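Batch 3, record 17
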Amino acid sequence: MIRRVRIALALLACALAAGLLRAERGWPGASREPNAAAQRVTFNRDVAPILFRFCAACHRPGESAPFSLLTYADAKSHARQIAAVTQARIMPPWLPAPGEFKFADELRLTEEQIRVFRRWVEDGEAEGAASDLPPRPRFLPGWQLGKPDLILKAPKPYLLPASDTDQYWNFIFRTPLKETRWLNAIEIRPGDQRLVHHANVLVDRLESSRAQETTPGAGFGGMEIKIESEAFDPDSHFLFWKPGSVPRKEPEGMALRLDAGTDLVLNVHLQPSGKPEWIQPSIGLYFTDQPATKFPMLLQLENDAKLDIPPGAHDFVVTDDFTLPEDVELLAIYPHAHYLGRDLQAFATFPDGEKKSLLHIPNWDLNWQAVYRYAQPVHLPAGTAVSMHYTYDNSEENPLNPNSPPKRVVAGNRASDEMAHLWLQVLPDAPVTAASDPRRVLQEALARHKIENNPGDFEAHYNLAAVLQQRGEVAEAARHYELALRIRPESAIANNAYGGALMAAGHPESAVKYLAAALRARPDYFDACYNLGLALAMENDFAGAEGYFRRAVQLAPEDANAEANLGSALAALGKNDEARLHLQRALALNPGLSFARENLDQLPPPDKKR
Amino acid sequence: MRRVARILGFARSTRYALALVFAFLAVAFAASAQEAVDLSGTRTSPLQHWRGKVLVLVFVRTDCPISNRYAPLIQQLSAKYAARAAFLLVFPDKAESPGAIRAYLRDFGYTIPALRDTDHALVKKAGARVTPEAAVFNAKRDLVYRGRIDDLYPALGKSRHAASTHELADAIDAAVRGVAPPRASAEAAGCVIADLQ
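Prediction for the assembled complex:
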């Protein structure tokens, strides 16, 4: 058994798309418009219903907003501010322009509602009749979905400095699970809502992020992170938190798999408050007995290779177009750019040539980024081209330009670099069966598309190779691993995977060199260690194999295969007593390991004379 | 900027006017010469103090997150220019009590003095419109700069990753050297002071 690792499609992983907390609709007065000439706008009748419905989720004590907007006094001491920020559509924060398809939980005021705030100021900010005041919205204290089945707290808090730039911190939550469980919701409590601008959970099934912590449990800095994942495991859910959002349960059948030993990485965007603050987030996990039956996946459009924005450029356009090879339902969309992104568009061109907008953000602001879920899934038949069309402003006129005077900007992970990413959460219409998986078809098409865009895309070559290998096209898989290795010769995972592919193709002698390179790059890399032992054993070099299997057993004491192979190598070397011990241990870990049983049975009986 | 000096002079010269007029002007005098209240409740006129030094007023509000984020920078600037410039925090919200302001100063590590500008007399003199906003008076008490601290919040609802221009520091630097700042004003983004009447 050869172990492979696949790189996840970067940034986001699982998530139960967050919806916005909304008070109920339909209060008396909520839809009544003040009669222009005759009636003065009052707080109780006209202003409060809008504040309660659109603002109070955040503008209340203990929440993210800096002040409450629950009472007449609250609102009066911010009246002009409210009129100005609603007029400019800065508040409530909702970036998309009204479009073809509606989003769930749209937080967009009508022109009429905006006028109410302006007229209230003009009319003298009257309170109005007490009988007009609708009841205050009620909000649940604490966990929004009830007490979680498992609450995890970040192992160590992070000290946010009093001042300086925005900070990005990643907390690694170690899950204590002993077996695979299914999740139908994750609730993120970012620690201090006032300081956290947004947060994302990523699933790290291989503990691959831990290497970035300088002290175990302390977390690590970084705006964009990449997670390695197993052979074919498309990250399929958005798990996103922003101020005012509440968790929602995943739709029926779309539970998220959580294996023993999985880490959950919380990527948090923080803004200093003016004094040092400790941040220690928690997450709540909600389990279900129902394993997933529907498997959505995340498709990432991107064209970072084309991001080379000259200083002063007002309208630098980056596009990407991907034609879907399968019928899918589009569930949610998540655009991503940094501070130069201005106008972000996504659209679909259907097979009959009709073009429809999927998302249009005319005035992008990284600080208010969000995952947008469609109110109804959008059907995109095979042959539909999905397109990303982003415009960047690297001129002095862009008030958010990180450089003054403007400088050339290219793609990168820092805030002063740029990105051109668009994530689509899609659910393929065809079911996943043992024989066919529509996600693999999508994955392969996407990887080929990325290679076409950018032949230097390491991950695309790597991921394509993984899909090909899974399908049994070993030679072609090896070719793409080799191409990936040409781009990153030092990559531990690519060296390991290429070595694995060579072994699968029957060339263990050629594999040894790459597996050894993988181990040099990452000395505690269990998979490479195991594979190298296996390659040597396949070459009948049992003495060489013994050392690597021993090390593999040290690295993963619970791994039955490593124990069994160590026992088998020892048996081949005639070290029968020790071989017996390891084969027995392997069978204790996994009684179904038939080759371990056979090898054990072939050992001569223990020497009882001694 | 000359207006400030002229009003003060005018008020003083009217002490001998008719009783009725005097009563009216006395109010004006009180508002202009003893503009603010310190945290112990004593009326004071900051523009009369720290003669020979540059005076920096920073208008803030305890519930304004943009104000708060600047606390370390304001404290740093006041330390850097301690010999040549006096710093004052001005709280224009009459609903913020001296006790709440004291707690706030402790919380954010402020050591510079604070005043309450409950009548908005200092707000008017400086022409401040939002919190946080700064006003720099030179040693002769001419208003030489009014506006944002830097461009971290370049427009309403927008925040940059880091500031790229530093208008307040530039203005103080010029004022202590006795020259005109590069810019006399720069629009500040923050919490609207006019809501605090």
